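If your schedule permits, I should be very grateful for your opinion on a structural question. The matter concerns a single protein, recorded as an amino acid sequence and a row of backbone structure tokens. Could you please explain, in whatever detail you think fit, how the structure tokens follow from the sequence? I set the record out below, with my sincere thanks for your time.

——
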Amino acid sequence: MARICNVGLIGTGGISAAHIPGWQASEHAHLAAAADLREDALKAWGQQHGVSRLTTDPQELIQDPDIDIIDICVPNNYHAPLAIAALDAGKHVICEKPLAPKPSLVRDMIAARDRSGKLLMTAQHFRFRQPSRALKAEIDSGTLGRVYHARCWMLRRAGLVPTPTFTLKQHSGGGACIDIGVHILDLTLWLMGNPRPLTVTGTARCELATREGAFTNWGLGEPISCPFDVEDFAAAFVRFENGASLVLEVSWVLHHDTPTEDMQMWLYGTEAGMHWPSCQILTTNHATRQFNNTHLQMIEDQHEPHALECMVFAEAVADGKPSPVPAEQSLQVMSILDGLYRSQETGSEVRLDM
């Protein structure tokens, strides 16, 4: 009989709704309790999802001996304290991205994980999309040969969430770079095999979001009137220990030809090139001087990627498997993004301490 892990969810707004189907579908998990500082919203959430164990004090869940897994869905700057407390209390932790907005905080979380012997996972749901898993299998089989360059971007034309939890650094730790850049960067590094990053040259600034009349199409669409002190655009060039390089571009409000969001990646290897998410593979027959373009065949997933990440984590906890997204890989991601910010401040290339 499968072991059932009791899940305590902290933060019932926004992204938590995407996690719930995974906990409900998992044969290894039961969503047992939730915490949120907003009592009225918490009660409404509990009624909607059939969860009666509710508290406005996250420490009640963290210290509860009946809770096995803590799922953290609060703003970025509050991830580390809650995760460290949960790990020190003997809980397994799945935490929304980014794991923490500073590499030093990620290291603190890794240290707490090591003290506790429990699992720590960043909820990087892009890894659980079918095209991502299919491409990863191809790359691991050697299809690309040695990957020596990557291009990746996540660009929106008018798509930021107009709330202070995203637009004020005191809550978010950063802007578009940390909100959506973390998605495509994590996926690209994972597909590349997580080579060790050495240096970053980057820029991060706000060009459009605070202009008079700026608006967002997020939700029902509205003017951007919330307080704002983060970047709406960022770009970086990264060098790796194995000689590979990477170019990253990310924006919430770019004059870019997309009605909503443009997420793409190219990986270039010695034997082939590969595009995500189309799963196109490009090879060259040098003997016949012919170009070959093929597409991997996709099988539609039964569950949405946010749900899959929760299900896979619960299975890892129940079966004693390693974390599906190791925190050390999240440390690479945040070290690069932190290096991007520091490069913007200094106007020069930054060497990373990895």
User: Anything to note?
Assistant: The longest helix spans residues 327-346. The chain has a mean pLDDT of 95. The domain at 127-303+334-351 is CATH 3.30.360.10 (Dihydrodipicolinate Reductase; domain 2).
